[in-house]
Amino acid sequence: MVFEVVKNLFLVKEYFLLLHIFKLLSQMKKIVLLIGILVMMAGMAKAQDVKVSENGPEIEFEKLVHDYGEVPYNGNGECEFRFTNTGNEPLIIQKPKSSCGCTVPSWPKEPILPGESEVIKVTYRTTKVGPINKTVTVTSNAKANGTVVLRIKGKVLEQPTEAMPEKEMGNGSPVNKN
Fold first, then answer.
1. What is the DSSP letter of 77?
2. How far is CA 8 from CA 16, 18, 21, 22, 62, in A?
3. Calpha distance 8→10 (Å, rounded)
4. Residue 2 and residue 42: Cα distance in Å, rounded?
5. CA 116 to chain CA mean position, Å
6. What is the chain's pLDDT, residue by residue, as a tens digit (178 residues)?
7. Phi, psi of 71 (to 5 degrees)
């Protein structure tokens, strides 16, 4: 009988020990599940970073602003904006749009291969006196910056006036008088 009581005590202790172990395992499962979720979220965040660096064309300009400084009336209003396709697929430039009719862009119509450079030429008609502050919006199939705004600035000077020399009276030269 004592043997039975001792045996039952051991069984009860084992039962409580097993319950305690299951509780710990349950808590560990929660911790392991939480760690797994955190690792998954970190992986998803990293996957989004990878999407930004996907394959595709990229456009990189040497400069975004051209300053003419002071330009004479009817002077040279041409400038160039050099760019490079830094991506790994061909870059296609759509028709650039200028902010007014006095600014005329010309661009390469053929695709620009990866690593190649080209220029967008901008001609400003310098027949209007005053400050220059115009933009040309370039749209392309570039992944990160498909729309780039180029700017030209400066000042067109006044047209020089030409005056005819006048003759003075009284110096002995003939003057036509009517």
1. -
2. 12, 15, 20, 21, 87
3. 5
4. 59
5. 18
6. 666 665 665 666 676 766 677 777 677 777 776 677 777 888 777 666 544 457 899 999 999 999 999 999 999 999 999 999 999 999 999 999 999 999 999 999 999 999 999 999 999 999 999 999 999 999 999 998 999 999 999 999 998 777 666 666 656 555 555 5
7. -115, 135
Measured CA to CA in angstroms, residue 150 lies from 3, 4, 132 at distances of 96, 94, 13
Where would I find the H helices in the chain?
2-52
Alpha-carbon span 146 to 117, nearest angstrom: 17
pTM: 0.61
- Can you tell me which residue has the tokens 């999407």? 51
